[in-house]
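Subject: for your reference before the review

Hello V.,

The reviewers asked for a structural picture of the protein, and I figured it would be easier to keep everything in one thread rather than splitting it across files. Below is the amino acid sequence we used in the manuscript, unchanged from the supplementary table.
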Amino acid sequence: MRRASAALALSAVLACLAIPVPARAQKPVAERPSYELGARWLLSDGAYDLIKSGGDGYVFAASPSRQIQLTQELGMARILKDGAVEWQLDPPPKLKWPMEIGKWGVNYNAVLRNRDWPQGILVNLTWEVKAYESVQVPAGTYQAFRIQYLAEYQGDISRRGAAIPGRQSWTLTTWYAPEAQQFVKAEGVGLRGVDFQLVASDKSAPAPLQVVLADPKDQVHVSGADLTVAGKATAPAGVARVAATLNGVEVFNRAERSPAREVSLSFPVTLREGKNVLLVTATDARGQNRQEARVIFRDRPAPPPVAPGPAPVTPPPPPPASSPLQVAISSPRDQSRADQESIALAGLASSSKGVTRVLVMLNGVEVARLEERAGKSALPVNLPLKLREGQNTIVVTATDTAGTTQQEVRSVSFERAVPLTVQVRHPEDRARVNDQSSLVAAEISSGKGVASVNVLLNGTEVFKEVERPAKRSVAVAAPVKLREGSNTIVIRATEPDGTVRQEVRTVIYERPAAPAAAPPPTPVAAPRREQWAVVIGVGQYNSTAIPQLKYSVADAEAVHEVLIGKGGFKKENVLLITDKTARKPTLRDLKWALGTFLARSAKKEDLILIFFAGHGAPEIDPRGAEPDGLAKYLVPSDADPNDLYSTGLPMDEFQTIFDRIESERVVVFLDACYSGAAGGRTFASRRTRAARVDEVFLDRLTRSRGRAIITASQASEVSLEVPELGHGLFTHFLVQGLRGAADLDRDGIVSLQEIYQYLEQQVSQKSRAMGGNQHPVMKGEMEGMLPLVKVGPR
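And here is what came back from the structure prediction:
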């Protein structure tokens, strides 16, 4: 009995030992991200673009009066809403990275400013990473670190230590999601205007796993047996392995110890006579496969000439020739597109020696195997295949009784049929909000493509996007300003065939109650006027049909240098875009710089200067809106000269840019080439910049007060480039003028009126001396004298 009891006890102990112990959960950790100019946060109250990045941190702005400022360590330094400071800490908090639960920090005697206390109060600021948790926002559900800032009152700045009425502490809570690499939510206690949520992600979908073969080309014919395969494999998750087969035999296999986003390929292969099938397969760190195939023909060399000899004796008739191993696929066709997930594979493997095996691979995975031990002269292949979305590679490999292999490859692209769909992420229908600014975020998809999207607010169009060519998916982010009471928002999408679908949302804006009167703030100095500039130089064009320009980049660099030097512009306030800078002068980047960077940065009282050096071009205006019948374009580096409407920057766009900019002092200098006879699409020669912007057109662009445009020459003249100066003639004197030569009254300030007077005099005089005729033109209206740069008294 005791033995039985002991046995039972031992069994119980062993059973307990056999119970698996749950693995200890891995502690969540996040590395600090970094952001580049152009990054965008789509939040519930607007689209915030990164307009400043540097040692002081980051500034995201939906407008000059609506901004979020972060330290380099992503501490929440300042939140500005509708011109009012809702949260500002001096010194700002500095988070500690890598981010982990439990990390914390303290700022003693920090100054907190908010809407109730704009003059500032002394607080002790404690921040702490409280948790790593799931948080749901309109953009989706994220795992995020919850970071809490607690500001506790210590004293009034003007009356240190004195008590204040009401609230004695303020809390700001933010959620940082490593997956999104941004803050996805913020909430305040005792604070107004700090709440926000992420409504959509502006991050484009990562590029899929890809295999790119630079050499050999598909269907190429070569005479030699030796060949080097060259190319690369890329994957956002990292390339884990690359393998290659030639005619069904593995010839290359490399595993990466540390998966890299890009792996270069270079390996030799030996071809057999006739047809060869090369198949390169890449596998990423997530186990996804991608294949690229090449068919290469090695031609048999011609036999050497034979010396003439005696007449040959007629040989006996040869035996019937045997047919070689062949694989023929009748369906699907190579490089075909499918709109159904399942397709039929139909083919035939044949050989006079007999086919023993047929192997079918789809995207690197075996899906069928047919075997005949004795071998058959013909073996049919008929089976259904289930495709994945995107590119699919089908490989059929046949083997005969002699062990010879033959392959045939088909590439098929599958795009699932998708009806026109409008998915609204924000705002919710019947939502009640107390912030007048909001963001309409939606995703539009269609298998036929989305041709255009419109957003209407209370019957007025506030957003329009036209896609050429139509895209299968379009993300919409449209800032709107609500009126008090009920607001009707309509998101309307159109397919190329005219099919329309729309979604309607009703949002009720309730104006927040006026806060109790706060103690009178101490007088503050008037806001300092800032100077902003976008300087663009385009010399190299992607299209060979557009002549390259020698001096436009040098022009832009010279203007940039004088502005941040003698001109006194802050370096971080001047955006230089040329062929040499990280941000290139493409259409997208030019529109971002002019319509987003400036609109998000400059305030009403600030000065904006825009300079463009590069090609311009006319195109027939089918609207008939232009007196000369020509639409005018500035030509970005990625423009198509045969389609300026969709790839150029219309000069008419300046009206939209001017409307988006809050500043009342905007000056544009254009040293651009507008060449080509009426109705033509030619460009200027490499040594001339033929201007064709008539004065009526410029009058229309600058009809709003506070906007001025100065062009290099009149409509019928040519703007010269001067090799000995290394610049366009107009830009050379513009730079000299901004350096001080245009300070005609010697008061130490170069005004708009002075720079134009100087340019008109110097350019016309120098052009005549060179045998030309060039007169700059200025259009626009400014109130009083407009100072451009301060150069000091002379």
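For the response letter, the relevant points are probably these. Residues 134 and 601 are 34 Å apart (CA to CA). The longest strand covers residues 249-270.

Happy to draft the paragraph if you're swamped.

O.
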